Amino acid sequence: MDLAAPVLARRTSSAITVAAGAVAVALPLVGFASLLLRSQLDPHFENYRAHFVVFGLTGGLAFALGFAAGEAAERRADARVLLLSLAFMATGGFMLLHAVGTHDVLFTKQHSGFQIAISVGLLVSAVFAAASAFVDLRFEAGRWLIRNRGYLRASILLAMAAWFVWTVADLPPLGGPDSEAARGSILAVLAFVGAGVYAVGAVRYWRLFRESRKLLLGAVTACFVLLAEAMIGVALTGERAWHASWWEWHGLVVTAYLVIGFAARREWRDERFRDLYLPTTREQRREVSVLFADLVGFTTFAERESPTEAAAVLDAYWSDAAPLLARRFGGDVEKFIGDAIVATFNSRGDQPDHAVRAARAALELQAQAERRADEHPEWPRLRIGVNSGEAVQREVGGAGHVAYPLVGDAVNTGARLESLAPPGGILIGTATFDRLPDGAVVEKRPGLRVKGRDAIVDAYLLVALP
Predict the structure, then answer these.
(1) Structural domains in the chain plus CATH codes
(2) Distance CA 337, CA 405 (A)
(3) Which of 77, 154, 271, 426 is the 20 to 30 A CA-CA neighbour of 302?
């Protein structure tokens, strides 16, 4: 075995990281020089088709980066990453509108709304960017943002659509390429405000970077400084005078986005943006419901059947279970463990009815499993355990692999209840039963001995819900 290869790979990786960090540090300096020497550095390059392609690709990159960050925010219910994703989506989305309005490509007439679309997008983005820097100071604000994440994303798309319609219709004050909107003092004032907001956010991220020295935090800081400098350029010279110099600015902004993407890419693939996660994302307590299900006698079944047949059984059951749990009832399928499946409800803190969701999901899952068993009498049957209570979700692992398991007595008891449930049955804990609506049909199973617990456990065999 060549022991030098892993060492060389680590050194190469470290060198690339250092180089990316150096680029991130250099970007604001280059941007500042470009700002001071904007008249000398103005390339006066006005190829409309090239403008359409470059700005379109830049906007698409920023929007895609925002979408990817939004997926991470959705998965871990992290308000900071959610706000950053909205900031990138706003920047990229309005940059795409600017590209769409390129003269003599899709439109023969120049519209001032398309000319100033980038500045508008940067202003919208600044609000989300600065909020992301300070969201850790207000825990309840973060929870509100996560609960309303769908509306926030929709607001970006709605703002883009409204701006497009307003621009094409030439409604005041966007009435033509020489309108006040494209050259007025209002734009300058808004640009100065936007620059200040970005600067405040950059200072906050710089402090966060100094605490942990993570490349992703440094890249976000550099990106915000660049955007602040860009807004200063708009404020000083106006959008139309500054327009030609956007060629070099967008090269800098694209590079900043690429460094952010590179820093995220180097993380564990399922947690690209974890260096930005809030402390409350890395470790949090909340009331949850857990659902454990497995196939009774599957080991014996797999012993007498071929591996292909055993795999077909798992595929049939879990292809029914995954969409049912995740889409119909809003649960999170945490993992498959051989012939078992584990799902959680309220892992993001936005499902106050988590116990009812888990119970209804268990009933429907059992009904589907029974239909499968009727079609294949030789297949093993399903048993399910559901329990509710407080659990801690904490980040474990490192650069090679990161997981966020739920830990607590409520989780352990749910797993034990599943092992005590009869084939074709659903055994729920007392905490789950207490949260069910009146009229739930159950059979009490008191005084159960659960492996690993000294105290006895009362449980209920769930039959039906109203």
Answers:
(1) 4-277 (1.20.1070), 280-464 (3.30.70.1230)
(2) 14
(3) 426
